[in-house]
Amino acid sequence: MAANYSKPTDSLQKLISEMQEPLNDAPEESKTLKLVEQGFGGVEYNLTRYLDRYWLIHWQEGSFEVNKILAGESKFPILVADSREELEVSLQHIYGPSLQIDTSKLEGEWFTLVRKNLYLTEIPHDDAIKHQIAGTPHYKNRQIPLENLFEPGNGEPITLLCIAPSRTCNYRCHYCYHHDHGFTKNSDAMEQWAKSILIAGERIPRPIRFSAGAMGEPLIMKKWRDTTIKLLKRDNVISLSFVSNLFNPLEPFFDHVDPNKVGVMASLHPSEYKDHDQDLKNFLDKLAKLKSLGVDLVVNYVLAPGQIEQFKGYQKLVHALGIPTTSNVLRGPFKGKVYPEAFSPEEMELIDSCYDENSFIFDSQSHLKNPYGIECVSGRKGFELLFDGTLINCGFARNRFGSIFDDTLMIRKENSACTASECECQTLIGWQVDVERKFKVQRTLQHYVKVA
User: Fold this and answer.
1) Nearest of 433, 426, 430, 428 to residue 374 by alpha carbon
2) 424-438 pLDDT, tens per residue?
3) pTM (2 decimals)?
4) From CA 18, how far away is CA 21, in angstroms rounded?
5) Domain assignment of residue 156, given as a range
6) Nearest Cα to 335, choosing from 313, 355, 314, 307?
7) Quick check: helix, strand or coil at residue 413?
């Protein structure tokens, strides 16, 4: 039987296009190669994540090289699919008892040849594999009916996260999540972001809550200010939230917007203060000013080693202003260790005490809760808009729907099952249905009040 050269599916066309696209001037999560599991399925293949898909790469390839793969120079079959479950079933299908690949099975209907030794895997949803894969989140989500985001819908608001790709910042916090990519302006990518977010506000007729901060300090960026000021003038934009350390002047932004449509997560970073007492006073004074204007506020603090013990003292000062607080558990590499796993039991107990009724944030950020399979509103009421206009359900599951520049943009009409193993962003944690039913998110999109 010849390899499957049938008319390319939409998935195949998208895959080829994305592999050929040049890199933008800003780091892209989608194009950051991530090792998920070594020796996947007990054979000499690694499961990796790239272009928001799962890839199986044989150990003897040596490395993951896009140009080499596109040129058909791979030595062993490479399988790519939307879900790890599809790849797990595929491996079982093509490997025999001797743990050798039966390449003739790659000529079946499950596999589409993209390039030599590169196969797109799309397993049909039929009775033959129903017992193995049909009950998984990926396949359950495939059955959800869709609707066009460019139509009014039922008038229910949606939330769009669309983080500006500039990493310009006046601080250099040693625990910052963005150190890996450096503090750069990413000017071309900012132009793309500005175009995408304004087009989204124009083309989506539904009420929109935007979370549109930046990977750096937004108030320092003229492009960010100009874009969000335009965005807030739209009647369908009911709110804009962002994260800021409040170091920079407030007037260039707040003098031009309705503060009652703005929510700010004010990030408290005392490790960056040159004159601690004076800088802290300036921070608190700006909080008081924004509160008097009608801005919705929450103050955030990173629970990193050396900072955990001071949180409750700062919390008292902020609460005295009538402003709530929240925290982020440190995650990722820090001083040669990887967190939160590197926290001692005593540190974890202290961190846990920093949360009150919003302990669901601690559970997820501490990796105590795996969201895989749980019900979530992402893809129906909440989305992430990437700076190039691509719409995904969230930054962790990363299920793609299309582009804000497409003729139609089909989204889910019902809640879906999470396909990610981690959920760490406070906004996205709040999209989990068990959280959404008990808590009402505030205008900051980072603060929740218990309602049930």
Assistant:
1) 433
2) 999 999 999 999 999
3) 0.91
4) 5
5) 147-450
6) 307
7) coil
